[in-house]
């Protein structure tokens, strides 16, 4: 009988992986999946009959329907033999001629979605993305500066690997933030330099707070190289006005910082309009010759969010502006190590940036489906916001964008005592109790970072209908009464 023990154990694997935290798929998410499995097996002992996964921006898990145009095109690029039967597609399966034309075009550029593409992505798809960026911003885009990625997360991973040279490298990250950034920096053994967003002004950026965080980190020996902006925000939902973006870019120019603009929620804007960092940078460069020419900007986008919601297809891209050619060569080398982004995901990116236009056979259906999804998200966001406004000790600004609300919760002292007895933070304790009582899974604010002595939770508003919102209201009243 062998006496050898497993070579790997918790004390000898990477300490950087061990220390990384990713709350949106942590303990609460695991418990919610256990409940979901129990319900699927007919368990009737739980106090609810449905699990609502409001912890993660995963639209199609929560019944957001895929857009017909996208899925019809994908069906043809996945199974090109269907194109041998155009009459059946058109006359019996309700495909439109532009669906067939787009599938043929994609196949002519890709060859087969089962084959690797060029490392940075299919050239024709990169050209489509460049045209989209030009239409959006009013400034030219260079396809050679665009890199297809396996969702925006893969692009973030690439960029942080190149930026982070050692344990003294620092990256400014907003708090609260999407935990991808802190987790990735932990794994890279680099330093997160947090800066608090201003909740009182709708979670906007406060340049003086950013400056203070930067200067403190530099004084402590940190080589601060980059500044992360999530716009519209995750988890806050804030959508930045242009003057905020101008101030951020001015600071980046002054301190010689790389700007990482996470813009995956750019179509999820309910108040005002989306302002891309690329457009504002180009305006500043026009208005101030030479002053902003050295600014390095990487902008990221994804098919996972917005009205597309194709998370599982893992499609995304990032565009580089102002990077040194030798640095770009190493970014290309890094993406080459993973060969290429999923080619079907690349096709979805092309369909996102180049949707049917007025007059196209698929336009009316596409526009109706797209608009219905947007309106449904807005209605559910408003319903959640209205519910929070009725709940004792809860404050939440109006929904601005993205897929989330991030309310402040003020809990009675006895709730903090009960949480401490379980070895939990008060917001984590609240969210666990909410899940166990209602089946609704949200994420405690501590999973994203929050200002000292404040408590929050993040919820999506993706779940269909608004009935589940009432379950939160009822739970909250009982929770507060129990812990007074």
From TrEMBL:
Its cofactor is pyridoxal 5'-phosphate. CDD domains: AAT_like. It holds the Pfam family Aminotran_1_2. SUPFAM superfamilies: PLP-dependent transferases. Residues 97-466 form the Aminotransferase class I/classII large domain. Keywords: Aminotransferase, Pyridoxal phosphate, Transferase. One of its GO terms (molecular function) is pyridoxal phosphate binding. Coiled coil: none annotated. One of its GO terms (biological process) is L-alanine catabolic process. Belongs to the class-I pyridoxal-phosphate-dependent aminotransferase family. Alanine aminotransferase subfamily. Homodimer. This is Glutamate pyruvate transaminase. It comes from Sodiomyces alkalinus (strain CBS 110278 / VKM F-3762 / F11) (Alkaliphilic filamentous fungus).
């Amino acid at each position: 009988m062998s006496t050898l023990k497993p070579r790997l154990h918790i004390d000898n694997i990477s300490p950087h992986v061990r220390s990384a935290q990713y709350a949106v798929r942590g303990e609460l998410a695991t418990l919610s999946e256990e409940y979901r499995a129990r319900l699927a097996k007919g368990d009737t002992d739980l106090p609810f009959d449905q699990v609502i996964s409001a912890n993660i921006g995963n639209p199609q898990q929560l019944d957001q329907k895929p857009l017909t145009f996208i899925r019809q095109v994908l069906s043809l690029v996945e199974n090109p033999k269907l194109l041998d039967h155009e009459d059946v597609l058109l006359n019996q399966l309700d495909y439109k001629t532009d669906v067939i034309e787009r599938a043929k075009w994609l196949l002519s550029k890709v060859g087969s979605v089962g084959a690797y593409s060029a490392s940075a992505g299919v050239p024709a798809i990169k050209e489509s993305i460049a045209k989209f960026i030009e239409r959006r911003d009013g400034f030219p885009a260079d396809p050679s500066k665009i890199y297809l990625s396996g969702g925006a997360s893969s692009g973030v991973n690439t960029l942080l690997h190149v930026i982070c040279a050692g344990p003294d490298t620092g990256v400014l990250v907003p708090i609260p933030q999407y935990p991808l950034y802190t987790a990735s920096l932990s794994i890279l053994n680099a330093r997160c330099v947090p800066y608090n967003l201003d909740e009182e002004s709708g979670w906007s950026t406060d340049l003086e707070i950013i400056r203070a965080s930067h200067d403190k980190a530099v004084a402590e020996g940190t080589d601060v190289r980059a500044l992360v902006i999530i716009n519209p925000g995750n988890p806050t939902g804030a959508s930045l006005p242009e003057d905020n973006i101008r101030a951020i870019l001015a600071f980046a120019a002054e301190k010689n910082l790389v700007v990482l603009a996470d813009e995956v929620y750019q179509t999820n804007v309910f108040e005002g309009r989306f302002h891309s960092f690329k457009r504002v940078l180009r305006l500043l460069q026009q208005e101030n010759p030479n002053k902003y020419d050295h600014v390095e900007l990487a902008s990221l986008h994804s098919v996972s969010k917005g009205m597309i919601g194709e998370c599982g297809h893992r499609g995304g891209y990032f565009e580089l502006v102002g990077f040194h050619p030798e640095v770009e060569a190493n970014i290309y080398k890094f993406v080459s190590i993973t060969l290429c982004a999923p080619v079907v995901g690349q096709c979805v990116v092309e369909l996102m940036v180049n949707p049917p236009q007025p007059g196209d056979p698929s336009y009316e259906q596409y526009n109706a489906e797209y608009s219905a999804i947007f309106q449904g998200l807005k209605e559910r966001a408003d319903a959640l916001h209205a519910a929070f406004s009725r709940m004792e000790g809860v404050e939440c600004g109006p929904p601005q964008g993205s897929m989330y609300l991030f309310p402040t919760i003020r809990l009675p002292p006895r709730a903090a005592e009960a949480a401490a007895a379980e070895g939990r933070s008060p917001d984590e304790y609240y969210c666990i109790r909410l899940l166990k009582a209602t089946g609704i899974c949200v994420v405690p604010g501590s999973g994203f970072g929050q200002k000292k002595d404040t408590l929050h939770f993040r919820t999506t508003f993706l779940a269909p209908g608004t009935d589940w919102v009432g379950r939160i209201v009822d739970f909250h009243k009982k929770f507060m009464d129990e812990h007074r």
